[in-house]
């Protein structure tokens, strides 16, 4: 199977006492098991009273932890299969691996996240996304999934089935997802250009226009003014001729998303066309992404509340900046997946990459979450402090009922789900 080798910082995490990829949380599970087949997974579920699926560890909290057994699918070494425009993949496969595999066969996924290092099942289960006002989250490419539920049964759900929209962004609460089927399209080329000099007035006034200015757009800011009066850079990823960005100039040198760092780990810029999977992510799969030792938070707001959200963060800029490495602003198209942060509305995501100071970050988040618009939803895989989230998801109670049916003995339940779902 096409795979991405472990990055250097992941080596220790392959032990049961390991941690998340950024070392933000140390797992407490008593054992880590790597089944090699679906039957192995079923046997584990029938044998172990408490267990939890572990993806590529690209989260920052106890989301995937359990007092029992962590189950990693990275040794279920199956080759993907392509039938028409649908690719079937093992859940433990990473996006970087399936992307290159598809490109070799003339196919592509509609979008990718910033990091190609993440596992497919884990990214889908948490509503992880890339950018683009017409691009849904990674979960929206799923046409079917198979999981081993709390009864030890292998369950297949296809798009259109009654439980499908509730199960896709499932937070690992319904079972262990062993396989997914994803919709693909013909492979395509993308150019990536960084635009410098965006002022705060232009960012605020033209926010939606800027986010609409290419197939995928990211705005990077630290919320304080630079010496030249600018506040942000815009990363524009285009499939066609890129639109102009008000008040900016194209960069003449490559950049890292975090100011001052070597741009070598980042994908090619300067308007040079390349395959979709070598431009849509911000980082190359063979480098450590971002800075490694960090925390991340993200808040997704309905697009009509985006300017209000931007103003709220700007008002805290002096407090945010000392702990912030960078903040990324992106857009995500609406979907119908029950626990997707983009459920029912186009959204704008405010993604914070923080220095690894959990106490300081939590103090800021508590205040920030009070100031953000009422429709704000956090990214499930990142750090947030709110727990009263049910009113923000119309199908919240339906999802809890789904969990009760799929896992009546709560074998996949953990402390994170208790805090968040209740």
From TrEMBL:
The keyword Oxidoreductase applies. Keywords: Oxidoreductase. SUPFAM superfamilies: FAD-binding/transporter-associated domain-like. Pfam families: ALO, FAD_binding_4. The keyword Oxidoreductase applies. It comes from the Bacteria. GO terms for cellular component: membrane. InterPro entries: ALO_C, FAD-bd_PCMH, FAD-bd_PCMH-like_sf, FAD-bd_PCMH_sub1, FAD-bd_PCMH_sub2, FAD_lactone_oxidase-like, Oxid_FAD_bind_N, Vanillyl_alc_oxidase_C-sub2. One of its GO terms (molecular function) is L-gulono-1,4-lactone dehydrogenase activity. Residues 25-187 form the FAD-binding PCMH-type domain. This is Xylitol oxidase.
